[in-house]
Amino acid sequence: MNYEMSITTFHDHLVELLRGGFAPVVILLREFHFDKAGIVLNGLPFSAYALLEHMRHRQRVLLDFIRDPQGNRTTWPDAYWPADPVPQNEGVWLQTIATFERELEEMIRVIQNPESDLFKVHENGKSLAWAAMTTFHHNAYTIGQIKAVGRQLGVW
Question: So what's the architecture of 3-152 in CATH?
Answer without folding.
Answer: Up-down Bundle (1.20)
